[in-house]
Amino acid sequence: MTQALIERLEAIIVDLPTIRPHKLAMHTMQRQTLVILRLRCSDGIEGLGEATTIGGLAYGNESPESIKANLEAHFAPLLIGQDACNVNAAMQRLDKAIKGNTFARSAVETALLDAQGKRLGLAVSELLGGRVREGLEVAWTLASGDTARDIEEAERMLDLRRHRIFKLKIGANALEQDLKHVVAIKRALGERASVRVDVNQYWDESQAIRGCQVLGENGIDLIEQPISRINRAGQVRLNQRSPAPIMADESIESVEDAFSLAADGAASIFALKIAKNGGPRAVLRTAQIAEAAGIALYGGTMLEGAIGTLASAHAFLTLRQLTWHTELFGPLLLTEEIVTEPPVYRDFQLMVPNAPGLGLSLDEERLKRFRRP
């Protein structure tokens, strides 16, 4: 077989409308912005990748605009002319020359895997070791901020058999107001659903001590990143005393962070995100650290579109245990798609295609319509 070389990288910013405003502790999303990477190879195969952030720079240190600029100005010169079939060598070449930029790095690794899967006729999950499940249970975030509306939305999702795990974004309001909101929703749903919360680092340790106690006593199953990622000692203390398990999210910005958190005993659950680890292969390294330390796993999201969601899903399909399931619902927030066949959700799960690569192709007309000028 003739060696295939990387010929071109094209980063495209796409702005897509959402079904409703999505309220987080640090930002309210009115739309979702994706960076789509098209990686073209000399054998005519194109790999697709995606880098998606939440709220511009409100969440992290990469924005859609910086991702596009860095992919074109810094990543592309390192990759063009390299062997498109050797994902490992290409990513190690980036490691030597580029620090951080995990969102952009994830888009590249995803595109290389997609292209190689298409080349070999294998799904990305097979390139990553082989799937041990066909679908992934998916949580839904209730983010209107209105208790009655959130209960109504959860009941609708249960009736549709689309979700039975619900996560609430809290932290922006007064502590007692947030606790009352969450407890009311849990009482309304009872044992029919799992209810979790994500604080996005907005509590200080004194608030978290009370908040975790009240939530744990009222049946909340999981508390995500209640305090600042830099307060490691506080995370350890909270993990030791909270009646509900603590999940690390913002605390994990690299595979090295995962090792440090595991060594310190700062969380009992890790949120896995390909964008924050640098790609599907990279996120599996974090998963291996967690498993070795006896830490449970949860498949997280940056609210990606179809490409990023399925890239995450292919990695998560290979995990031995995914105790806390996933929240790969990003495509369900969108009213428009840029792929020809949107991801399929049924019976509380995301069904992951077993076609070559990611199992997706772009809808060129829609891509053109939503592409940022």
Automatic annotation (TrEMBL):
InterPro entries: Chloromuconate_cycloisomerase, Enolase-like_C_sf, Enolase-like_N, Enolase_C-like, Mandel_Rmase/mucon_lact_enz_CS, Mandelate_racemase_C, Mandelate_racemase_N_dom
Domain named Mandelate racemase/muconate lactonizing enzyme C-terminal: residues: 148-245
Entry's Gene Ontology molecular function annotations: chloromuconate cycloisomerase activity; manganese ion binding; muconate cycloisomerase activity; racemase and epimerase activity
GO biological process: amino acid catabolic process; peptide metabolic process
Key words, A-Z: Aromatic hydrocarbons catabolism, Isomerase, Manganese, Metal-binding
Family assignment from sequence similarity: Belongs to the mandelate racemase/muconate lactonizing enzyme family.
Superkingdom in the source lineage: Bacteria
CDD domains in the cross-refs: MLE
Annotated protein name in UniProt: Muconate cycloisomerase
Source organism: Pseudomonas delhiensis
Claim: Isomerase is one of the keywords in the record: yes
Pathway note: Aromatic compound metabolism
SMART domains linked to this entry: MR_MLE
Active site, UniProt feature: K169 (proton acceptor), E327 (proton donor)
Cofactor: Mn(2+)
